[in-house]
Amino acid sequence: MQKNSLILICIAININVFAQITKTDDLIKSLQTKNKDTVGWAHGGVFTFGSNEGFLHNWSAGGELASITVNSIFTGHLDYLHHRAIWSNNIDMTYGLNYAYSTGFLPHKTDDRIDFTSKYGYRIDTHKNIYFTGLGNFKSQFTKGYNYTLPNWDSFSTSKFFSPAYITLAIGLEYRKGSDVSLFLSPVSGRVTLADRYYTIQTPQGAFGIPYGKTSYYQFGAYFSGRYVFHINKHTLFKTRVDLYCDYLAKDTKDSLGNIIKKDNPANISVLFDNLFSYKISKYFSLTLGAVFIYDNNIPYTKFTSTTSTTTKDDPGKNIGWLQIKQTFTLGLEYKF
């Protein structure tokens, strides 16, 4: 009798747990496209890890004898809903390394990014999708970056964690439809760029927009951030994001002699355009294609120098100028939660 009772209790617990999971899954699914009046947490994320490898022996066409590249991408969100109020957190992180026989398998970084956004919004009207929202955004990287085109590239890093770091604080209005659509506009926002003095004394212009010898650079202006998630089908997802920043205080930068070393004005808007396409091949395998475009007047375009001479050498993006481009392709393992 006790054994049968124990079995019935276990069955009841399992049914209850299954019902709770189903309810949670349904809630998260509905919250993707609807602003549902509820209280509780909703979360989700995808981690992708992929690599590719090559090996050559007595290959008449030539090439890298041996190489391996690894890429990882994590994107996730954690939201707390309390009736008309919502606290949403989004994080995007990427990291990639390349190992080649010709460089003694020393790791060369191919990707490195931390991008975290936290927002707290209160719905102005229960029948509308407009929120009064406060936003904070943080951008940086995990490890040191180098200019691998230089012969002595490992003697000087070009960046590291928190150098630079970009912190934005803003207050404004947000049009929000579930977690899939968000349009945030702030006429009053502040942004600070931080970096170690080690980097800002390397050139007369400073670094990352920070003046020579300084460790910070402040901006005050208008900020727009738009996000859209398109569920093409149950296996295919497309995410896009556009960030625009207009600095009201932007002006020409001059050296000690009064010569203009950087032209700038409020109409020179900084742009971030981030895109991610993901196709789920099977339960644990996926294909991911990403492309990020950045225009920032504080990060000028510089040609790299040949490793065999002191003359400048053309690079694949010589005609693109100041536009920063990062493209990634990953085929590998995916874990979704």
Structural notes for this entry:
With 337 residues, this protein is mainly beta. It folds into two domains: 1-31; 41-336, Outer membrane phospholipase (ompla), Chain C, CATH 2.40.230. The chain has helices at 2-31, 197-200, and strands at residues 39-55, 66-82, 85-100, 108-123, 130-140, 165-177, 181-194, 216-233, 236-247, 253-254, 260-262, 270-280, 285-295, 324-336. Strand 8 (216-233) and strand 9 (236-247) form a beta hairpin. The chain is flat, with a radius of gyration of 24 Å.
List keywords for this structure.
single chain; mainly beta; Outer membrane phospholipase (ompla), Chain C; 2 domains; 12-stranded antiparallel barrel; two-stranded antiparallel ribbon; 14 strands; about 10% helix
Write a brief structural summary.
With 337 residues, this protein is mainly β. The protein contains two helices and 14 strands. A twelve-stranded antiparallel β-barrel has the order 1-2-3-4-5-6-7-8-9-12-13-14.
